[in-house]
Amino acid sequence: LAGVLMKVRDQDRHELEEKLNNEWILTPVIASNFKNLPRAHIVTAEFDLERDEGEYYGKLLKDGGNEVTVKRYEGCPHAFAHYNHPESGLAKSFEFIEDTAELLRYVHEFNCFTGFFAQQDGASNE
């Protein structure tokens, strides 16, 4: 009985893996359309196993005519952004936090007020 259950479990696992491997939500680079998508900012780390796929996704978005920025943080592993301890954190983690804050400031100023470019020209929100 245990052998039969293992075989069934292995077949189920194989079928599930096959379905997941073909699911564009989990692997966006296999989507069928990359046109008319919202602006995107893609972050990759030099020593991340998923780096190439992330950067390739950025290329697909650009080729589809979308506005996209891609930034690779050199010398960093996956999840480097979490290494932000005030005394022993990675410098690139703090750089990532600053970059993200700047991006969010830009997005919120552009969307929530009269627009980023109007503010730069001296327009007031008061």
What does the model show?
It holds the Pfam family Abhydrolase_3. There is one protein chain. With 126 residues, the protein is α+β, with helices and mostly antiparallel strands. It has 2 domains: 1-28; 33-120, no CATH class. The protein is 48% helix and 14% strand. Strands 1-2 form a two-stranded parallel sheet. Strand 1, helix 2 and strand 2 form a beta-alpha-beta unit. It is globular, with a radius of gyration of 21 Å.
Brief overview, please?
By secondary structure, the protein is α+β, with helices and mostly antiparallel strands.
Characteristics of this structure?
alpha+beta, two-stranded parallel sheet, globular, 4 helices, about 130 residues, 2 strands, single chain
Strand tally, please? Answer: 2
Q: Report the C-alpha radius of gyration, rounded.
A: 21 Å
Average pLDDT works out at 82
Task: Please list the strands of the largest sheet in the order they lie side by side.
Answer: 1-2
Instruction: Identify the quaternary structure here.
Output: single chain
Percent range for β-strand residues:
5-15%
Order of helix and strand elements from N to C terminus: HEHEHH
**How does the overall form come out from the CA principal axes?**
globular
Unreliable spans? 116-120
Number of domains: 2
- What percent of residues adopt helix (DSSP H or I)? 40-55%
Output the structural class: alpha+beta
Quickly count the helices. Answer: 4
GO molecular function, one term: hydrolase activity
Domain Alpha/beta hydrolase fold-3: 19-81
Organism: Fusarium oxysporum (strain Fo5176) (Fusarium vascular wilt)
Protein name: Alpha/beta hydrolase fold-3 domain-containing protein
